[in-house]
Amino acid sequence: MSAHREDKIRRLAAPDIAARKGGEPLVCLTAYTAPVAAALDDACDLLLVGDSLGMVVHGLPNTVGVTMEMMILHGQAVMRGSKRAMVVVDMPFGSYEGAPKEAYANAVRIMKETGAQGVKVESGPTIPDTIAYMVRRGVPVMGHVGLRPQAVLVDGGFKAKGKDEAGRALILEEARLTAEAGAFAVVVEGVAESLAREITAAIAPPTIGIGASAGCDGQILVTDDMLGLFDWTPKFVRRYADLKGEIERAAADYARDVKARTFPGEAETYYAKKG
Predict the structure, then answer these.
(1) Which fold does the domain 3-241 belong to in CATH?
(2) How far apart, in whole angstroms, are the C-alpha atoms of residue 188 and residue 27?
């Protein structure tokens, strides 16, 4: 075995994530660019190239307008920036809800063109069969139940789910079917703590919560929310930094120095050689 192979860091994969059920909580964050992926890599078990990039990076009103090309472009960047964490890419709206064969072809394209280790789909009522079809053909799939952002136009907004008994039963059943179909993990979003714990106890794959309490097997947040890049963040987000404030301060300091002609100074200026 060459020295190059011996020194190479082994990237986490679906079996590693699945094996964490009931153990040390999984640490997951979204990533959309190479430098941010590199900064997050050591701390995270899984980096999700979320279709939230449509809103976070591109300023779209929701995730419905995100394309395959957008997901692949950002997936490639995250793979270049990370070395250790498993990278999962969201399948965008319209790329997997039809025939399982079409979903499989799109998943294969994402994985081949990005090098990612898996894909994520939102687990609506027709999706478990598609998950099973893809898993049987070698595609690691992460599910997503509860609040499903791609259903925002049907739901009329980003609304918490499972507030009544019928809603709870539906989400629990979707989670069970998703697990039985072969998903290696299931994101649980925007549900009450008691339902999140019930889902976590009922299914074999680890649950990864977002707005679903500490009762899940791991947690994920949109990194830009966690870093304080927006004026408003959802109730379930804890801000660990104020990067928007830092960026505004840095831009103001830069503008001041440019206007005062103190930037660039001698340290930032090239000079011709004498003689």
Answers:
(1) TIM Barrel (3.20.20)
(2) 14
Question: How many angstroms separate the CA atoms of 136 and 134, rounded?
Answer: 5
The domain limits of the chain are 3-241
Q: Which residue, 70, 72, 46, 48, is CA-closest to 59?
A: 70
Q: For the chain, what is the radius of gyration of the CA atoms?
A: 21
* pLDDT tens digits along 3-49: 444 447 899 999 999 999 999 999 999 999 999 999 999 999 999 99
Catalytic residues: 189
Q: Which two tokens stand for residue 245?
A: 């404030």
And the tokens for 224? 């830009």
Instruction: Give the number of residues written for the chain.
Output: 275
Quick check: 162 and 140 in contact, CB under 8 A? no
Could you tell me the sign of the dihedral formed by the alpha carbons of 153, 157, 160, 163, in that order? negative
Residue in this structure with the two tokens 């697990």, named with its chain if needed: 179
Q: Residue 263 and residue 257: Cα distance in Å, rounded? A: 5
